[in-house]
Write a structure and sequence with these properties.
Length: 377
């Protein structure tokens, strides 16, 4: 199997499991009686290690063999779900979330860097578009898998079903992983970010963090809203699946959109659509309306994350693409870790509906920032 196709296959199984884990953690914790604040803390713990280690993992991805890094990640992901299966208590869920986040920190940077390094410049946008469409597909299958497994098998078996996806990754790496690039060794030059970060990249890091905040918190709070209005786990999974469908559709056109429109203009569309989606969620009182809102949200926000990845890889210094993507993920995962905690605490005080409106305001601020960047470039 060509290395680029193996990388896309690993992306599918890994991120299907990651998206299933996110829904499973939220609903299982609610099932055990966790408060909105506790669920927010658990969600935030998914991103502790990505915050602390993404830059370090980026450096490793530039120097070390991808196969070993990905094997370590898959083992951690499987172990986190087995912990939940054997010890279904909230304190264990905190540890499982952190361990799954450790896996995510290795997977995310390594896979993105592999896509870039395996692509010729003329094929890079297309391959990143394919990578992002795989990501959108996993956002469909992950929540749907978790919801169906919970409703038909129970929470414990849902953990095993999700863990099986990581086992598939391990098998693929053991049997086909030698086709991936070998270790590259130490890279010359300054290691400090200030040696290869400029003002434009810093601006992109900020806007990329806001995109990540919006996309993740929509997926995090829609299950809470769905639970509050009495939707089943399968219905909630179906709603999130519509978000994935919309993201897949818009990402199919990503390469052509990136060629036709400036990145800042596309980012403005991303933020405005995200603001509208957040503002409409509190008015959705059934699965059909909530699914339509999720679809609208995905048509805009679905393009934001891969767009920032393409722009950052294309503008990274020679031999330091992994570190650049690692810094991007450090910023994004800081947002992902602190966002659920902060907005979970806010939601406990003012209510979940107010959180959606507040996030709509944050997305409008992001649109203003993208417009300002467009004027200054």
């Amino acid at each position: 199997m060509p290395a680029i196709y193996l990388t896309l296959a690993l992306t599918f199984f890994n991120f299907t499991g990651n998206n299933a884990m996110r829904v499973l953690l939220t609903l299982y914790a609610l099932h055990l009686g966790a408060s909105a604040t506790a669920v927010g803390v658990i969600g935030g713990l998914l991103f502790v290690f990505p915050v602390l280690l993404s830059w370090v993992v980026g450096g490793l991805a530039d120097r070390k063999a991808a196969r070993k890094l990905l094997l370590f990640a898959a083992t951690c992901a499987a172990a986190s779900l087995l912990l939940m299966y054997f010890f279904p208590t909230l304190p264990v869920f905190y540890a499982a979330a952190a361990l799954n986040g450790l896996a995510l920190s290795f997977f995310h940077v390594t896979l993105q860097n592999l896509i870039g390094n395996l692509s010729k410049p003329e094929h890079r946008a297309r391959n990143f578009a394919n990578f992002s469409m795989i990501g959108a597909t996993t956002s469909f299958f992950g929540p749907l898998t978790a919801g169906l497994a919970i409703d038909h098998l129970g929470y414990g078996w849902a953990c095993l079903v999700t863990a099986a996806l990581s086992v598939v990754v391990i098998v693929l790496l053991l049997t086909l992983g030698r086709s991936l690039p070998p270790a590259r060794g130490r890279i010359k030059g300054g290691a400090e970010p200030r040696a290869w970060l400029d003002r434009g990249m810093i601006g992109m890091l900020v806007t990329g963090g806001l995109v990540q905040l919006g996309y993740d918190l929509f997926q995090f709070y829609v299950p809470i809203h769905g639970h509050a209005i009495g939707l089943s786990a399968s219905a909630i999974g179906g709603v999130l699946a519509t978000l994935a469908i919309a993201s897949f559709i818009v990402r199919y056109f990503l390469a052509r959109l990136a060629e036709r429109y400036p990145g800042e203009k596309l980012l403005m569309w991303v933020f405005v659509t995200g603001a509208l989606g957040f503002a409409l969620v509190p008015f959705a009182t059934n699965a059909w309306v909530l699914g339509a809102v999720a679809f609208l949200f995905g048509l805009g926000m679905g393009i934001g994350i891969p767009l920032t990845v393409i722009l950052m890889f294309a503008n990274s210094s020679d031999g330091r693409s992994g570190q650049m993507l690692g810094i991007r993920l450090t910023v994004n995962n800081t947002v992902r870790m602190s966002g659920p905690m902060a907005f979970g605490a806010i939601g406990a005080v003012v209510g979940v509906s107010a959180v959606f409106w507040l996030l709509a305001g944050v997305m409008l601020a992001g649109a203003g920032l993208a417009r300002w960047q467009k004027k200054t470039t």
